[in-house]
Amino acid sequence: MILIGRTPYATCQTAANVKALRTKLFTTDGYEPRVRPIDDQSLPIAITVDLYLLAINDLSEVSETLKTTAFLGLEWEDAFLRWTPASYNKTEYAFWPQVEMVGGSKGIIMDYYEANSGWDIIDSSWSVDTETGDSTINFSIRLRRKPLYFMLSVIFPIIALAILNLCAFLLPNECGERAGYAITVFLAFAVFLTIVSSSLPQNSESVSLVAIFLIIQTTCSTLITILVLALLRLGSFDEKDEKVAVPRVLTFLMRKLKWKSRSKCSKVETEKDGKMHDSQSSLPDASESKVSRIEMPTQLHENRLFKEASTVDEFSWKEVVVFLDVVLFVIFAIILTTSLLGCLVGAQRNAVN
Questions:
Q1: What is the tens place of the pLDDT at every residue in 332-346?
Q2: C-beta separation of 302 from 277 below 8 A
Q3: What are the phi and psi torsion angles at 31 (to 5°)?
Q4: pTM, to two decimals
Q5: E strand or H helix at 260
């Protein structure tokens, strides 16, 4: 709330000068406010109009309307309010009534205030400003939102959607609904962002922590949707028609993290079967000794080639996809926890300040 009044510009030394001047203008001269203040009544009065803009409250681009807080300043020369300054102790300016704003000792009195269901008043203050030539008193009220309704209707649903977003990596890659699940969660975030944005002030100087957290989770949902589609494509590389080798970088990471490979286990079993077959074939047989001597080098060469191929194809693409699901789940879970804790710490600091 802002109240504006005029400061005393009268330069006289005593109240007698002001009384004598007022008596002369309004009593002796018989000032009549209903008569246009100009000697030649056939001429128009020149009025200077200035608009003092205080704030822009709302701008509607659809209806093309602008709501502002402002006041008009009007100035004109009154031909009936003239005097000789020397006759009144050099009084050049005078205003009636002469007002100067003075704040009360209690500031804002809330003896009759009814508590609001959504906001708490945590502080109030007032100040007087006379630097602009006008005496202005400003009353300020600091409000804090009651968090229960906002937590139940906004914060908890956002956190629940963020947790559901991580569950996209828990679905098996063979599940046909995996991509649809990720896209559905992304659309839910987009709708929720629209709803929350409509209830928050459209201010570019300070963005609310809820909007920041929601934007972070919407971005993560976008990345998760893209990654899920990419993992579906990687899972198809094991097909015979488009057999693609696993990159060495992924193989190296899976070895360092001690990821168990099914193909490695099958390779060991195959080697054991090969050794048993070799031991059985090494038994002396008089009728087939010559044939065994000829087949032994060829069989050893095939086993060596099989070992090399098994070493190259140590992990299948299905195992790589499962490995990436675990890694991405952990990464996005860390992002969710970090962003949530950061917003909570920021909200606590704002509440203290």
A1: 999 999 999 988 888
A2: no
A3: -65, 130
A4: 0.56
A5: none
